[in-house]
Amino acid sequence: MTVGIIMGSKSDWPTMTHAAQMLDSLGVKYETKVVSAHRTPHLLADYAESAKDRGIKVIIAGAGGAAHLPGMAAAFTSLPVLGVPVQSKALSGQDSLLSIVQMPKGIAVGTLAIGNAGAANAGLLAAQILATHDETIMANVEKFRAEQTQTILDNPDPAE
Ligand SMILES: Nc1c(C(=O)O)ncn1[C@@H]1O[C@H](COP(=O)(O)O)[C@@H](O)[C@H]1O
User: Fold this and answer.
1) Which residues bind substrate (predicted)?
2) Handedness of CA 9, 12, 16, 17 (dihedral sign)
């Protein structure tokens, strides 16, 4: 497994599945796990501290509300961590976004957009990071982008 997709709760899966689907479509192997900085703090420490030795290259962490998971995962590992703000019911994910994005200088989290688009783009960005050292993944990323462009060029009329 080269990407670790973690999330604060099983309830985040409908969002985080979009990261998994993107990685599937780009031929990137990943693992998925519920890990919470709040509810399972020792599991988070174990997960993030052991990730590099287990062959993980990028961690995608999705969480909603007071979303401390991505930042705490980044605190426990030097691997790149991509944060996905899950769209919360109470504040539509604004809380998740601000919790994840405002990291103090010195510990980095790459924050994506709120919700499904952010999760999909986290998968895409993880693949692009891996692609810098993997020609097959780079070819898959370039094919995905070319097909996306061609689909739009082939369907220019929005009313059709
Ligand atoms: N933000 C966090 C963390 C964390 O940051 O450690 N752990 C769980 N959660 C979030 O709580 C929300 C509600 O969770 P439940 O649906 O289980 O009550 C989820 O979006 C989860 O990511």
Assistant:
1) 9, 12, 39
2) positive
